Fold:
Amino acid sequence: MWTADSRWNEIMSNENITKEEIAAIFPKVAETMADALGCDVEKVKLEASLIGDLGAESIDFLDIIFRLERAFKVKIPRGKIVEEARGALSEAEFENGGVVSEAGVTRLKSFLSEVPAERFKTPLKVAEIPKLFTTETFCKMVIRQQRSMAAAGGAKPA
Amino acid sequence: MDGHFNAFTFVNRITALQPGVSVSGIYFIPPGIGAFPQSLVAEALGQLAAWAAMSAVDFKSRPLAGIAGLVELLAPVRPGQTLELSVELESVDSEATAYRGAASADGIPVIRLQNCVGPMLPVEEFDDPQALREHFAVLRGNGSMPGGFGGIPPFTFSRNGGEPGQSALAALQIPAAAAPFFADHFPRRPVFPGALLMNQNIQLAAAFAVEIPIMGQASSLSDGQDARPTWNLRSISDLKLRSFISPGEQLELEAKLAGRTENSATVIVETRKEKKLAGSVRVSFALGGNS
Structure:
């Protein structure tokens, strides 16, 4: 099992995701998002906020995730995105009463390194975390899942 | 007859079930109703998927209509026919279920669904989990009594604007909570079924499609009846329902030409409530000759 061992943390870490890896999948991610949102692909910039800039709603997140799964032949762990963002922090360390703790915000800033610091509100509610997601967030999500599948001996990334 | 599991239920028996993987079932279309639109065949497949998904999560959550990537409309059905339904679950968890499916009527394929996603919500908000468990056992056993569906209710649906050949606007008044289907969809929280909205979207798209000019002519209507094309409904795609529609609400529908070739046309229909987008769908037609 991969869970909680150091290799898993390495796979799920952002630190070694390169700009080249992101650039390689960005066109397909942008096309997938544009199809899901019914907008022009030119509007889907790497740094665009899904909710703020592209007007995505919760049903669009589901749509995007399932389309990305089909496009890249990966399994994206729905409902575990925030859990993944939490990393090694326990739930109690990450949030209190639905508000992200200081340690949690620090962890989020590292995990969502593509999000400009000024977009992290204080206090930040857990429910508001998806507002931070950008196109690049989804590119990284795909790359991490491609890596985890490759590490587990799964199909070669599409 | 109690409306629950009758007034808007389109599975009479589950004939095979591989938990979390696949499910098959049948539905007897009541012979006495006026029509059974294809959107209700899609609803039957969605309901079969919902039974499989609910049983996979022990009736803690249920999928609701959300996304249909592609619905191929292969042949019409008529009252009195028996639908054979089959669904493959691609995934099911507490967040969502993804599935594809197919339906045949008397052995002839009538609908294929692909890339469908239903967000999972707490069952208790909509229905009694124990009642669902018990009805699931009936469906898995000898099946339920056919004939509960009384036909599509009449709607107040009026075209009220748009540019011929470019767009069409219509108002749709959702019936009050006393409408029989609300007792079944759902007992604890009446929600206007996505399949009925889909049906109204298709009707507006079809009425609008008649106005789409034939390529090379200024307008299909300008040359008289003989030049009027017959647009045959082929598929609907990218259906997305964004919010619940409650009894008594007033909706605005808008159909717009999204693309066309010499032999095909695609119409986007958007549904709004209080100016906010509540749903959208692409309806595709193929030119079928002059009427």
Remarks:
- DSSP finds three helices and 13 strands in chain B.
- The domain at 13-140 of chain B is CATH 3.10.129.10 (Thiol Ester Dehydrase; Chain A).
